[in-house]
Write a structure and sequence with these properties.
Order of helices and strands: EEEHEEEHEHEEEHHHHHEHHEH
Structural class: alpha/beta
Shape: globular
Radius of gyration: 19 Å
Bound molecules: zinc ion
Distance between the termini: 23 Å
Largest sheet: 5 strands, mixed
Helix content: 40-55%
């Protein structure tokens, strides 16, 4: 018998990564899309198109798993709310299944990234873990006592909205919060912190880029920091410290064996992780700090896609 195959789609705040994945977690075809600024209809059209593209080369797929950056009601597949996509009380699973004429399974993107890491990645064997996904925003997932934890309806694990600063900057998208971890330590926050540093030091490399382009993207900060630029490294250390403060709260609240960090912004690597680890070591309650490991995702930015595929392979019941 040939291995079962499904399509896994990780739909982030601004982009999509998908693929045909078999039950051994081998990825056969990949598809990428971006949708900054698209409305709901356009976003859904892009998702459908992406699925059709990979399905054309793998007509044997049995279902599609979606990870989306939204509060997804468990059992119904209704997207109740999203900070980053125009989804509200939207029957995502049923409508998508009708359009694709395939069974569809949908859950929160970061929860599914943790599913992949717990099954075959860095959290394999752990019974208590959290995942923090650093991208445009910050997603979160929880594994408690060996099972994904979803709360009373499926909305648990929104670790990006841990409040670090009651009077801090307004959070992103539709979050009513202020000073959330997401607005202070996401990939987007790299750019904001870099613009502030650039304004203070206009003759630095960051300062020159800000003058030339009017804004600084998070990816540029990471690139300059890897090239050894001091100010860019300071920016990552500052943001890493804030990330660490968020991890302190997660560690103290859950006493996990490990916290997995994933998402595209993790390209910053140890320049971000080391300052975060230092804050956890210094500030978390000592027995908690001694135990918790802080590790990058084994599957990198493919964790969400693989988790979505696993969710479909397990028919929405992991
Ligand atoms: Zn928030």
């Amino acid at each position: 018998m040939p291995p079962r195959r499904v399509i896994g789609i990780d739909a982030g705040g601004t982009k999509l990564l998908g693929g045909v994945v078999d039950e051994g977690l081998v990825v056969h075809h990949r598809v990428h899309r971006t949708w900054r600024g698209a409305d709901l209809q356009e976003t859904l059209d892009i998702m459908v198109e992406a699925v059709e593209e990979v399905r054309a080369v793998a007509p044997d797929v049995e279902s599609v798993g979606f990870g989306i950056p939204a509060l997804v009601e468990h059992g119904t597949g209704v997207a109740s709310w999203s900070t980053h996509l125009p989804l509200a009380d939207f029957p995502f699973r049923d409508l998508m299944s009708e359009r694709l004429a395939l069974p569809v399974f949908v859950d929160n993107d970061a929860t599914l990234a943790l599913l992949a890491e717990a099954r075959e990645g860095v959290a394999k064997g752990a019974r208590h873990a959290a995942l923090v996904a650093l991208g445009t925003g910050i997603g979160g997932g929880l594994l408690l006592d060996g099972r994904l934890y979803r709360g009373s309806r499926g909305f648990a694990g929104e670790l990006g909205h841990i409040v670090l600063d009651l009077h801090g900057p307004d959070c992103q998208g539709d979050c009513p919060g202020r000073g959330c971890l997401e607005v202070l330590a996401s990939g987007t926050a790299f750019g904001v912190a870099a613009e502030q540093a650039a304004a203070r030091q206009p003759r630095s490399a960051l300062g020159k880029r800000l003058a030339a382009e009017g804004e600084i993207q998070g990816a540029l900060v990471t690139e300059l920091a890897h090239d050894g630029d001091e100010l860019a490294r300071e920016v990552l250390a500052e943001v890493g410290g804030r990330l660490g403060a968020g991890l302190v709260t997660i560690a103290n609240a859950l006493d996990p064996e490990l916290i997995v960090l994933g998402g595209g912004a993790l390209a910053a690597g140890e320049l971000l992780l080391e300052p975060a680890r230092e804050v956890v070591a210094e500030r978390a309650l000592p027995p908690v700090a001694e135990r918790v490991r802080i590790e990058p995702a084994h599957f990198g930015d493919e964790a969400g896609m693989l988790g979505a595929a696993l969710f479909a392979l397990e028919r929405g019941e992991p």
